[in-house]
């Protein structure tokens, strides 16, 4: 495989020192970064190398969407609070999926993510082999988990998750992983959580779960089990460094301490939490407690956008407004959440541009009004624009595992027009079954 040599770019490394190389270079050999630094590469380009002139562009790690659901019905029945939305929209849609609908829903979801600079998604959905097929075809890095609930809820059960693990885990040169998923405690039980942990340990994989997303969930758990959701998860042994807990809007001090004790990873999903009226998570306290917090968009049905630049902006502004404190969630820290923290949560060798890391890289074009004015050589000004001014349409190039998936905003793997047409047809087909 020939190398990819990226030159003349502003390289935002997100490494331990948060170095920014103005007029820097990045070299990719196979699926790894073999050179990152200022100025021109020391070694000349070799025959067959693909040269990318990144003049006017930011070269940075791909964004990581830590809590994600493939979505078929963006904008459909999205005027409801969480529990009603789930019962009238989300569950009916995913209960009526056919294999091709799942494939095209995933293809459309992953297309939007790639076009917004997302290189990894932590996707909880159904029909995982069909999602894996879409991820393989389009080239994105995915961590998949089933929507596991008690059998009477007619979603997935642990056996489905076990079968999916054995079918697709580690495929696509390792870009596809499978974890054990738990929908949420209102559709589960302490026994199911214990069984999920046992299965994850047996398979040697991680866990993806919704926790403390809404006040109604907390009250339901207290009524049914006499304890709060995170307390139940702790007692069941579900929590740990290999567990990504999504939302965590309504964590008590005691539950936050349990998260810290177990090293559980948290996905903060501010746009979804706001749209569903679920509240504002205690992000400043989570960070002060030393928890690793990444960012997720959740699902396009309860967000309407998979743009992680938008999520980054919300992840700062929401808390500043709520706490009346403009010092909170500064731009470099928010970008860290969307890159390094997400990678750490999933145990991935991505999230920063450093020697030997996986080659998940994006190029963001600054030659537009979003980045105007831009002080030359000023990292703080650049971070500000990336978090507070940019959106996904500024992403020019997306590279995953050393393979260019999008260049000049043109998808190189799947035909985008076909994806859109088939996703629309799949939505119409599933609607007839509801």
UniProtKB/TrEMBL annotation:
Molecular-function GO terms, alphabetical: hydrolase activity, acting on carbon-nitrogen (but not peptide) bonds
UniProt domain Amidohydrolase-related: residue ranges: 58-404
E.C. designation(s): 3.5.4.45
Claim: Hydrolase is one of the keywords in the record: yes
Cited InterPro entries: Amidohydro-rel (IPR006680), Metal-dep_hydrolase_composite (IPR011059), Metal_Hydrolase (IPR032466), MTA/SAH_deaminase (IPR050287)
Keyword Hydrolase listed: yes
Keywords: Hydrolase
Top-level division of the source organism's lineage: Bacteria
Gene3D superfamilies found in the cross-reference section: Metal-dependent hydrolases (3.20.20.140), Urease, subunit C, domain 1 (2.30.40.10)
One Pfam match: Amidohydro_1
Name of protein: Melamine deaminase
């Amino acid at each position: 495989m020939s190398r990819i040599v990226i030159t003349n770019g502003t390289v935002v490394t997100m490494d331990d020192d948060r170095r920014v190389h103005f007029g820097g270079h990045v070299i990719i050999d196979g699926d790894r970064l073999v050179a990152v630094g200022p100025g021109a590469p020391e070694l000349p380009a070799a025959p067959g190398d693909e040269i990318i002139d990144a003049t006017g562009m930011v070269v940075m790690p791909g964004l990581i969407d830590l809590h994600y659901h493939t979505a078929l019905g963006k904008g459909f029945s999205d005027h409801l609070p969480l529990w009603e939305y789930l019962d009238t929209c989300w569950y009916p849609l995913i209960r009526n999926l056919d294999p091709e609908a799942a494939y095209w829903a995933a293809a459309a979801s992953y297309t939007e993510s790639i076009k917004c600079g997302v290189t990894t998604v932590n996707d909880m959905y159904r029909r995982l082999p069909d999602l894996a097929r879409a991820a393989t075809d389009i080239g994105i890095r995915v961590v998949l988990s089933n929507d596991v609930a008690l059998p009477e809820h007619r979603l997935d059960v642990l056996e489905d998750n076990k079968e999916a693990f054995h079918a697709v885990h580690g495929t696509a040169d390792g870009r596809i992983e499978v974890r054990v998923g738990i929908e949420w405690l209102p559709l589960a039980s302490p026994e199911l959580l214990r069984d999920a942990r046992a299965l994850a340990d047996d398979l040697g994989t991680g866990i993806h779960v919704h926790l403390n997303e809404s006040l109604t969930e907390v009250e339901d758990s207290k009524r049914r089990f006499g304890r709060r959701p995170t307390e139940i998860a702790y007692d069941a042994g579900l929590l740990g460094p290999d567990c990504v807990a999504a939302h965590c809007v309504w964590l008590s001090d005691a539950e936050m301490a349990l998260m810290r004790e177990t090293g559980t990873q948290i996905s903060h999903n501010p746009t979804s939490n706001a749209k569903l009226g679920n509240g504002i998570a205690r992000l400043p306290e989570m960070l002060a407690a030393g928890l690793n917090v990444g960012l997720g968009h959740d699902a396009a049905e309860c967000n309407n956008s998979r743009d992680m630049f938008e999520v980054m902006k919300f992840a700062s502004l929401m808390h500043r407004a709520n706490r009346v404190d403009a010092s909170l969630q500064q731009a470099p820290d928010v970008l860290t959440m969307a890159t390094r923290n997400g990678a750490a949560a999933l145990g991935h060798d991505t999230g920063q541009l450093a020697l030997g890391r996986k080659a998940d890289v994006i190029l963001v074009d600054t030659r537009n009004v979003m980045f105007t004015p831009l002080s030359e050589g000023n990292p703080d000004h650049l971070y500000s624009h990336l978090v507070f001014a940019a959106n996904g349409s500024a992403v020019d190039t997306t590279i995953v595992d050393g393979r260019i998936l999008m260049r000049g905003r043109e998808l190189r793997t799947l035909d985008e027009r076909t994806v859109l047409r088939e996703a629309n047809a799949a939505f119409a087909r599933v609607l007839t079954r509801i």
